[in-house]
Amino acid sequence: MQVEFKVIGSDKVSAIGLGTWAIRDYGKAYEAYLYALSSGVNNIDTAEMYDGGKAEEFVGKLVKAVGRDNVFITTKMLPDRLVDKDLIIKAARAALRRLGVNYVDLYLIHWPNTSISIEEQVRNFEIVAKEGLTRYIGVSNFDLSELDRAIHALSRERIVVDQVHYSVLHKGEVEETLLPFCRANNIAIQAYMPLERGAVVTHPVVQRIASKYGRTPVQVALNYLISQDNVIPIPKAEKIEHVKEIMGSMGWRMRREDLEELKRI
Questions:
Q1: Of the residues 26, 30, 33, 50, which is catalytic?
Q2: Residue 166 is a catalytic residue
């Protein structure tokens, strides 16, 4: 099983990350994620909002088991913190305590705060990097205009990631405008909900192409995303079998005509 890598900032991370939103059974998920992290996946995503901080605590247990240097940790801050630098620092330190680490690799604004300007909130957010609480900063759920404003507002740091909803069934604005902009500005797209809560499994085009390659629809849906430059999907999995299936989406490529057919969905 071949693990592919992509770049965030100047770091190599596995081309598929592990998401932690809406985990139902942390015991099973721990076994599954420990398997993935022990098999070459080094990229995990969480947020303070997920399960009231329990998802960050879950990631912390995994990091303790495999070693801090073996995991690229992304977490996300709630936007209501962004009005004040002291609030930002307080929230970040609380997240680090839950994670059991001194810093994260990537800290994202979870979605834009509509009560203050994009410029003010991202400038305030830079404090997490200045204080050494994260190595990189980024955003989540920022559209093209918001992302453009964000990258031009910063002086010390730069945006290295925009995490958005993106899948073979949900492309729209991402592929038309956001992805070309991110490629031009060396920004990675982290794709959340890349399996559309399982909907990719029943799509006839995805099923047919999966059959053609002897793969599963899940593997085709994820392979479509990692075939795109600057794109890193972050699916959730709670069983080792599902993790193995997800990892099997790396290390191979579909023919151009099949990628084009998937693009037309």
A1: 50
A2: no
| Tokens found for residue 86 | 């002291």
Read off the pLDDT of residues 205-223 as tens digits, 9 standing for 90 and up: 999 999 999 999 999 999 9
Could you give the angle at which helices 85-99 and 54-66 cross, rounded to 10 degrees? Answer: 50
Q: How many CA atoms lie within 13 A of 81 on its CB side?
A: 25
Condensed to tens digits (0 to 9), the pLDDT of residues 121-171 reads 999 999 999 999 999 999 999 999 999 999 999 989 999 999 999 999 999
30 burial (CB, 10 Å; 0-12 / 13-18 / 19+) is middle
What Å distances lie between residue 137 and 108, 191, 215, CA to CA? 6, 17, 35
The structure tokens 């801090």 sit at 68
Residues constituting the chain = 265
Give pTM, 2 decimals.
0.97
Residues 221-254 as b or e (16 or more Cβ within 10 Å = b):
bbbbbbbbebbbbbbbbbebebbebbbbbbeeeb
